[in-house]
């Protein structure tokens, strides 16, 4: 190799090293360090190793009740989501009918709605003046489970539907020709083929249900606290940082176990999809065949997804004298009481922090996706990139509450004393959004035909020219969707922000939570109006982003 070639090789290696080092440094300082400090806080007492924090927390019956409630809600939410999601996957991915694209879009919207908005929407159903107010569901276990299904229905439908759409129908048709009943075909042919996707979806849903925070804070009441809400209670109400740290470690263990299982099952699903055929075609919708799945999906979409949002909208317009825009007009004032700023000021704060968080998440996510999408020739290089990919997925499996709490106990002294700075909020939101950005961009980069790079090199393009003209040019197709997900996620983020937002600079989700906790019809109406504004903002962002979705992109 001549001297010029040697310099190019060294420069290329240095460039890729820096591309990996920048996001790793960001993740190390603002994720690994706070989480590690939080874990250490649970084991240390006056500088020495101690189990006193754990003993105090786990000696309390309340702790075991909270853990049991967390697991029960996660298990019930997972089972219900899978039970109603599999029929929806069939209807939306294996049958063809007019308006299918619209139903798919409606199913996807709840996944990106802020958790506080969903909590307020379901709360509007069951309060005394709501349509279900006479059923005594306010603060009930069933209401929380229903809200978890609202969030995670799309995960099951899209995960299972993606594999189902690629399955060759001839296997099931052959079994039916040999005399197997529809039920037997389902149990012996279709279900085993779908098992990797169903298991992968269930693991993801359990993870999301176990780490739910905003909806439980709004809907749970005193009887249905979870590990996440208990961490908030110990920190903000009792100032028991050691107890909260001990409980956060339990949360980390539960979430890490879910993430390991989920990654393993997603690998199985990817292998199953690799061997599926692209020649399968969806069949026209038929009432005699599809009426069960149609009825189940219609009930879920109409009763569980649209009904709470429609009720929230109607309640935001209801006033003492009928219906009007009074609550929306009141968003411009602080309203007295504990509120020090108006809702519109909080919305402006949310836009500023979400914009900064989006810039951070997209820039860092693009660097990570470019590095991880490389194809090393050596097994050790491939393993190293696999580990790097898993490292940047960790924030997806670690509670935002844990991240926010870790910031509080870590970034409060030199060399990084950021207690009085609002920069903590967008940094925490960027940590939460980063895995989604990577998950959108990485499939787009991996789908690039290597022959395009080889052709550019043959034509005389250098390594950096190839990167700019091939990789960056093609990945731009996914940047719109990645930006939309990052912005919508940051705009509605509540877990970490509830710990970090200053009282005089709340974000819109924090303001909604404050309003819903105040007594009086005016405060309730303002909370619902603010929730509608927040939901509309996220829906518009995601609607625009979905129009830029490349077919390779995915988000879970």
From TrEMBL:
<keyword id="KW-0997">Cell inner membrane</keyword>
<feature type="transmembrane region" description="Helical">
    <location>
        <begin position="105"/>
        <end position="127"/>
    </location>
</feature>
<dbReference type="GO" id="GO:0055085">
    <property type="term" value="P:transmembrane transport"/>
</dbReference>
<keyword id="KW-1003">Cell membrane</keyword>
<feature type="transmembrane region" description="Helical">
    <location>
        <begin position="525"/>
        <end position="545"/>
    </location>
</feature>
<feature type="transmembrane region" description="Helical">
    <location>
        <begin position="71"/>
        <end position="93"/>
    </location>
</feature>
<keyword id="KW-1133">Transmembrane helix</keyword>
<feature type="transmembrane region" description="Helical">
    <location>
        <begin position="384"/>
        <end position="411"/>
    </location>
</feature>
<feature type="transmembrane region" description="Helical">
    <location>
        <begin position="466"/>
        <end position="488"/>
    </location>
</feature>
<feature type="transmembrane region" description="Helical">
    <location>
        <begin position="423"/>
        <end position="445"/>
    </location>
</feature>
<keyword id="KW-0472">Membrane</keyword>
<dbReference type="Pfam" id="PF00528">
    <property type="entry name" value="BPD_transp_1"/>
</dbReference>
<feature type="domain" description="ABC transmembrane type-1">
    <location>
        <begin position="347"/>
        <end position="545"/>
    </location>
</feature>
<feature type="transmembrane region" description="Helical">
    <location>
        <begin position="14"/>
        <end position="36"/>
    </location>
</feature>
<keyword id="KW-0813">Transport</keyword>
<dbReference type="GO" id="GO:0005886">
    <property type="term" value="C:plasma membrane"/>
</dbReference>
<protein>
    <submittedName>
        <fullName>Iron ABC transporter permease</fullName>
    </submittedName>
</protein>
<comment type="similarity">
    <text>Belongs to the binding-protein-dependent transport system permease family.</text>
</comment>
<feature type="transmembrane region" description="Helical">
    <location>
        <begin position="139"/>
        <end position="164"/>
    </location>
</feature>
<feature type="transmembrane region" description="Helical">
    <location>
        <begin position="353"/>
        <end position="372"/>
    </location>
</feature>
<feature type="transmembrane region" description="Helical">
    <location>
        <begin position="294"/>
        <end position="313"/>
    </location>
</feature>
<feature type="domain" description="ABC transmembrane type-1">
    <location>
        <begin position="67"/>
        <end position="262"/>
    </location>
</feature>
<feature type="transmembrane region" description="Helical">
    <location>
        <begin position="185"/>
        <end position="206"/>
    </location>
</feature>
<keyword id="KW-0812">Transmembrane</keyword>
<dbReference type="InterPro" id="IPR035906">
    <property type="entry name" value="MetI-like_sf"/>
</dbReference>
<dbReference type="InterPro" id="IPR000515">
    <property type="entry name" value="MetI-like"/>
</dbReference>
<feature type="transmembrane region" description="Helical">
    <location>
        <begin position="245"/>
        <end position="265"/>
    </location>
</feature>
